[in-house]
């Protein structure tokens, strides 16, 4: 995308790529000052000032720019001095969202692999002693004749069982998907009924694209991933005053890159809630195992959801602000998977 600026930094030319990139017409760009169009963009205008002062080209690799209040874009920009009548600067913008997304996905895959190995090691180390602790508590219980003391052994046995369940959950995601024809709306209806039975005060609004076809997936794994995310949303609404609402939306996404592969069609499932949002201190760690923002939370829900979705060559994206948090699962719409 190319913009030409005059000596006063007004736009005197914009190519069609610039119109597409910034989602504004050439008429809206021409004659407007770049400082007005881009607003608060100190890195861009620092490059502009350097180029004008030194007569050289400058490149800013990671800019966040938006025009006229539209969503901000991640761009790189090269500013060059132009020696022509009525033109002072040439600005070349390149979209780097895709590159950043691919880099994030690569880091996420590495993190997932490290998490899986850590979880497997911890789970196996914990699993073996648990059986011994539970068995010892049962033997001790048989030797006791005072009910108050038996209550203590029951606590030991109960906690051992709870930890055994937790360990089983830690190990479960490592089963490979068993693909078969799957209707995403049937899975979502099942998840909604479970969550509404558990949280009757919360309203779940379906917003489904009924034209979506069946596709190859593991319905049990996807149901668990969806349930974990929707249940997280419901739990986040527990202290919200007024209406507590979750909106579940399905749409087709086109020309999507997932795990370095380009897919013509993908399924986008969005779960939106009107809760308080993800705490700032957890934003970089929400998919880490054993990290929870809720008292008594296991910190495994999103980790397991991410693992199951990744095993389907998909990804989970999210954005959060007070009053609106959206988790979006993106899955390739594949119809002839091996082993399906």
Detailed description of the structure:
The protein contains nine helices and twelve strands. Helix 5 packs antiparallel against helix 6, helix 7 (184-198) packs parallel to helix 8 (219-236) and helix 8 (219-236) packs antiparallel against helix 9. The protein is elongated. Helices cover 43% and strands 27% of the residues. The chain has three domains: 2-95, Beta-Lactamase; 104-173; 177-332, Histidine kinase-like ATPase, C-terminal domain (Heat Shock Protein 90), CATH 3.30.565. Strands 2-1-5-4-3 form a five-stranded antiparallel beta sheet. Strands 7-9-10-12-11 form a five-stranded mixed beta sheet. A two-stranded antiparallel sheet has the order 6-8. It is α+β, with helices and mostly antiparallel strands.
Global Rg: 27 Å
H/E element string?
EEHHHHEEEHHEHEEHEEHEE
* Low-confidence blocks of residues: none
CATH superfamily name of the largest domain?
Histidine kinase-like ATPase, C-terminal domain
Q: What is the structural class? A: alpha+beta
- CATH class wording of the largest domain: Alpha Beta
Strand order of the largest sheet: 2-1-5-4-3
Total helical segments:
9
| CATH architectural grouping of the largest domain | 2-Layer Sandwich
- How much helix is in the residues? 40-55%
Mean pLDDT: 83
What's the number of extended β-strand segments?
A: 12
The percentage of residues in β strands lies in 25-35%
How many domains, as an integer? 3
Distance between the termini: 44 Å
Shape: elongated
Largest sheet: 5 strands, antiparallel
